[in-house]
From TrEMBL:
Cofactor(s) it depends on: Mg(2+)
InterPro entries documented for this protein: NUDIX_hydrolase-like_dom_sf, Nudix_hydrolase6-like, NUDIX_hydrolase_CS, NUDIX_hydrolase_dom, Pre-Nudix
Cited function: Mediates the hydrolysis of some nucleoside diphosphate derivatives, possibly using both NADH and ADP-ribose as substrates.
Keyword Isomerase annotated: no
GO molecular function: ADP-ribose diphosphatase activity; metal ion binding; NAD binding; NADH pyrophosphatase activity
Domain Nudix hydrolase: 184-314
Protein name per its UniProtKB record: Nudix hydrolase
Coiled-coil residue spans: none
């Protein structure tokens, strides 16, 4: 016969008054077996003496007892089932994930750190008994006082956003942790915009290192969450310069490591077609912006002395002469997840296909 511990009774008394009120009702008019233990209730505590093989527990002044070899029925339900139901109330609400782990429902967390401690400990024991593996615990910023409790129980930081911190716990001690790590990369874009006069759209940033002071560079920025590379490039150019553009293709991308906050960095150089010419600078980030002759742009000492950027400019110039073809996005739906996504690739010229839309390599830039 399962029993409820005194600590569990204390938690129930503090947090489940409504539940226990309804729990007491079935005892009205129930004849207590002689095998039940004799008890005396003093205040909120129950003093009991065992009789025979009876196990007895008291919940908020009510006596719950059963013999070891039988289950008493009340209103059609066995006492054992009722005890089991009570114990379930002491566990955190969670659901199984597809990898043998559990995800705690952050919308149903207790507000009290004391209650959370007891429920978390009971839940970990329950998950370990059931053979669960990883545990994902999302704690909203409004309940940040629960974070030290989780860390003390062995949870580790996984990642954080403005409104929450995500913690994880790997249960099997004999197995290596298989939970995926936090996002390892940040994604940036740079817009190469060239007009019909072979002038490139460039900016000077307000905040930069002393070595880059006075440098005219391409408009750049980070991709927002759930934003496409092509739309991010168009947005960044618009925000910094006020110029409207059409995305044409990804010319090249750079992969670097330990860039910011020890994260890796993917930077995509995108070729864009200008739809307007008037410049309206973003005064928060940009000191100045202008259309600059391409030949003048590449002759800047910083550009000329940088092997990587020099190669990028060479690629862009080769693209203008149709000697190079970048990658353009194509929206496709995968059968694996049923979601549309962008696949970037180029289409080589087909001598038997006269439709220029079938090849991004034939696109004109101004």
């Amino acid at each position: 016969m399962d029993s409820v511990s005194l600590s569990e009774v204390t938690v129930m008394r503090k947090t489940h008054l409504g539940f226990m009120h309804s729990f007491r009702q079935p005892f009205s008019g129930v004849t207590i077996s002689p095998k039940f233990c004799h008890s005396k209730v003093v205040g909120s505590r129950a003093i009991s003496s065992s009789v025979s093989s009876t196990k007895s527990q008291y919940v908020y002044g009510e006596s719950l007892a059963a013999t070891a070899d039988s289950d008493y029925k009340m209103n059609g339900l066995t006492l054992k089932n009722r005890i089991s139901s009570v114990k379930e109330r002491l566990l955190l609400d969670a659901f199984d994930d597809e990898y043998g782990g559990v995800v705690v429902d952050h919308g149903k967390l207790p507000s009290s750190p004391t209650v959370f401690t007891s429920m978390l400990q009971s839940s970990l024991s329950d998950w370990r008994r059931k053979g669960k593996k990883g545990v994902w615990l999302k704690l909203p910023v409004e309940q940040s006082e629960l974070v030290p409790v989780a860390v003390k129980e062995g949870f580790e930081y996984h990642h954080a956003e403005k409104g929450y911190v995500m913690l994880t716990y790997w249960i099997p001690e004999e197995e290596p942790c298989m939970l995926p790590a936090n996002a390892s990369h940040q994604v940036g874009v740079g817009g190469f915009v060239l007009n019909q006069y072979k002038e490139v759209l460039v900016v000077q940033e307000k905040y930069c290192t002393s070595s880059n002071t006075g440098l005219w560079k391409l408009p750049t920025g980070f991709i927002n969450e759930s934003e496409e590379i092509f739309s991010g490039a168009v947005r960044e150019v618009k925000e910094e310069t006020g110029v409207d553009t059409d995305f044409l293709e990804v010319i090249a991308f750079r992969h670097a490591h330990n860039v910011a906050f020890e994260k890796s960095d993917l930077f995509f150089i995108c070729m864009l077609k200008p739809l307007s010419a008037k410049i309206i600078t973003d005064n928060l980030e940009i000191k100045a912006a202008k259309w600059m002759p391409l030949v003048e742009f590449v002759e800047q000492p910083m550009i000329k002395g940088d092997k990587m950027f020099k190669r990028v400019i060479e690629i862009c110039e080769a693209r203008l002469r149709h000697r190079y073809c970048g990658l353009s996005p194509h929206r496709l739906v995968s059968a694996f997840d049923g979601r549309p996504s962008s696949l970037y690739y180029n289409v080589v010229d087909d001598d038997d296909d006269d439709d220029p839309s079938h090849s991004n390599c034939r696109a004109e830039f101004y």
